[in-house]
Amino acid sequence: MRKIVTSVIATLALSTATLSAADSYATVNGEKITKNDLEVVLRNPNIDFDLLPKDRKDKAIQQAIEKKLLTSEAIKSGVQKDKAFKDALERIKKDLALEIWMQNQFKKIKVTEKEQKDYYNTNKSRFKTPATLEARHILLKTEADAKKAIEKLNKAKNKKETFVKLAGEMSKGPTASKGGYLGKFPENRMVPEFSAGAKALNVGEYSKKPVKTQFGYHVIFLESKEPAKTLEYAKVQKKIEEFLLQDKFRKSISDTAKRLKKQAKIVIK
Question: Which residues form the PpiC domain (predicted)?
Fold first, then answer.
């Protein structure tokens, strides 16, 4: 519970600077109900209150009003003089100080364009997309049935149209209703025999021999094929920047912690 309270307080403290007078949605005895108050009752600062449906807005505002009134009542009771209150406040102050300090430390971290490009050039393998296939199949229980399907395809004028029709009529499994369509997938995602059979085809071709797998006998139609490629720097630059910022920040905090440990007198009991 204390962690939740601390997290909420830290979030509100860090977001206060972005608020304006327009962020008032009600008043209680002259005290404004702001987005800060609503974030607390919604328990998620990432929810945009203005985009919520009216009934959810009304409920949140009523909850915030009740919280204001109950908080006022708690203060009037003199709870701030309680030892438990004072102890909890000190703990929250320390956690909040750490939270804001770490936010400030992160703001100091900078990553240059050269660092980003160097990381990209030395880690290109991380930005590769695998070769992909787009295929349909007709799945049959026996090799004889698969050969019959292939014979029908051999005689057909419109191969793809006939393939889709045969998949709907003959194929076993959930893809039959979709004309045997399997979608796009990394070329090695399927069982090895199927992947090898699909990769061996040219786009627009179907397998002339049944492909046997643990599921049965397949006739495969290859819709498209895309080779493996490395994503361009421009497409991954933002992710690289975010990664390097986080990495530098973690190292900075780790180095600071190590330095402080060396200077501190630590007794573990």
Answer: 130-224
pLDDT in tens, 49-72: 888 899 999 999 999 999 999 999
Which helix (H) or strand (E) segment holds residue 183: the answer is strand 181-186
Model-level pTM?
0.60
Does residue 2 register a pLDDT over 70? no
Q: Are residues 80 and 117 in the same domain?
A: no
15 plus 137 within the same structural domain: no
Q: Which domain holds residue 99?
A: 2-107
Distance (Å, whole) CA 34 – CA 57: 13
Element spanning 139, H or E: strand 132-140
| Alpha-carbon distances, residue 127 vs 42, 123, 179, 225, 244 (angstroms) | 38, 7, 34, 19, 15
Whole-angstrom Cα distance, residue 189 to residue 174? 18
Q: How far is CA 126 from the centre of its chain?
A: 18
At 152-180, the pLDDT tens digits run 999 999 999 999 999 999 999 899 999 99
